[in-house]
Amino acid sequence: MPRVNVLFLDEALSGQKRLLNRAQHIINLPNLKGVRYMLEKSKLEEIKNKLDLKMPGIVYLGSGDFHHFSKLMIEMTRKKPVLVLIDHHSDMFESPGEVITCGSWVRDLVKENKIEKCVIIGLNRKDYEFFRNSEYKKVFFIPEDLPQEVRIYYLMKELSDQDAPVYISIDKDVLSKDYAATNWDQGTMTLEELLEIIEIIARTKRLIGVDICGEWKQATGNYISGMLDKEKILKNEESNLRILDKLIKVW
Questions:
Q1: Residue 173 class from Cβ within 10 Å (0-12 exposed, 13-18 middle, 19+ buried)?
Q2: Number of helices (H), then strands (E), in the chain
Q3: CA–CA gap between residue 112 and residue 78 (Å, rounded)
Q4: What is the pLDDT of residue 136?
Q5: Tens digits of residue pLDDT in 167-197
Q6: Handedness of CA 220, 222, 225, 230 (dihedral sign)
């Protein structure tokens, strides 16, 4: 069975008690500075050592602000996998200088030849139109506004010629607001559609790792904002638990 890990880079997961009770390994790094949204490439090895993960298994990363930590997780597998990114955003934009950002980490993996292929499913139409004719032929884009059966057809078509294992990275901003609350603009995918995608991948390909991000960033303020935070946290926790149950079932 895959190991379930929770990475604390801020307090975004602290209110999800049921999820925390399911974790075998909780990694506390709340005082790690300069890593929200981006981090310096020179710090990668130092952070990898602090993470103390031999194999990622299933990792909850917290807010989508830390999605670039997926690059570290993939590198820790010591494999060259196919990346299936289930995300409302491409994370394929160019990063400034010697940093990795939550919007550039996929591009970095492709440029460094650390993945065999990347399939991005659930992508917003704006990013799709921008990148669909890009020079990055290893990346295949499946926009959110296709019917589910068409999205799955293209996904499996792209995976069918690959012998490499699959790493799945999930940003819950791909989900509609009925199933998740994030601090980024969100897509229209239902939780059932997401779970179906996971099951089809896992039943046809070997999984070597999964990470999940897209938690709500808690506000600090009055009683009303605190109650709204609680509702959003519980909504995210329910989706996180459903995703975890599906992964453990099909791994």
A1: buried
A2: 8, 10
A3: 14
A4: 85
A5: 999 999 999 999 999 999 999 999 999 999 9
A6: positive
Bridge partners of 168?
Answer: 84, 210
Q: Which amino acid is at 164?
A: A
Closest CA to 243 of 11, 44, 2: 2
Burial bucket for residue 121 (CB in 10 Å: 0-12, 13-18, 19+): buried
Nearest to 152 by CA among 206, 199, 118: 199
CA 251/CA 209 separation, integer angstroms: 10
Tell me what pLDDT residue 223 has.
42
Please name the residue ranges forming H helices in 163-213: 191-204
Q: Model confidence at 7, in pLDDT bands (50, 70, 90)?
A: very high
Crossing angle, helix 223-250 and helix 191-204, to 10 degrees? 30
pLDDT per position as a tens digit, 90-99: 999 998 889 9
Q: List the structure tokens of 158.
A: 């792209």
